[in-house]
Amino acid sequence: MNIAVLGTGVVGQVLASALAAKGHAVMMGTRDVQQALAREQKATGAQLTLAEWHRQNPQVGLGTFAEAAAFGEVVVNATSGFGALPALEAAGEANLDGKILIDVSNPLDFSRGMPPTLFVANTDSLGEQIQRRFPGSKVVKTLNTVNAYLMVNPRQLAGGDHTLFVSGDDAQAKATVAGYLRDWFGWEDVIDLGDITTARGTEMLLPIWVRLWGALQTPVFNFKVVRQAAGQ
Length: 232
What we know:
Helices cover 39% and strands 18% of the residues. A hairpin with a 7-residue loop joins β6 (108-109) and β7 (117-118). It is globular, with a radius of gyration of 17 Å. It contains eleven helices and ten strands. The mean pLDDT is 95. By secondary structure, the chain is of the alpha/beta class. The protein has a single domain, classed as 3-Layer(aba) Sandwich (Rossmann fold).
């Protein structure tokens, strides 16, 4: 499958390399390829600069947002929260129409330092804003409640016995993405929360996620939903 990963930060890098390792053709998207490769600063959480990472992952293509979106049968938005809508605008509505758009971004605002706040919450979500702006796309919000390395390897924690969520208006797209999450990365417990408005809930998990990270001193943790057995 041809997969576009928009964003060249640590989330984009981890997702792109994992998908390429599964045999998919992957192209990462960025605003300006040459500027991105020339950047000497490492992305937050990354061990390598983008140029160093790309030399180690030559099988992953690198293009503009528009080139990547045109290439992908499925598009993954792995940009920052503030960068999500501008990146998708640059990708182009025509390159997104009719496609599943997996939205991994969170509306985190670091303008006042740590811990971040949310720039949209309660009555709206970033997932909803993306779906409204690109009505021809099938937006599925997922993976935004775990760190990048856990996204692609859930079994590193409790043998994979923890929970992931999907939100979106298109039931078939959500079912397809749940299948991708199992096949690509090994996620077993995927809960369909409902339409795209339910992305408000998963995005609003981020304030407690950040505080748990501080308390636990590791980002390798997740939520597990424990259900009551049927008939009890």
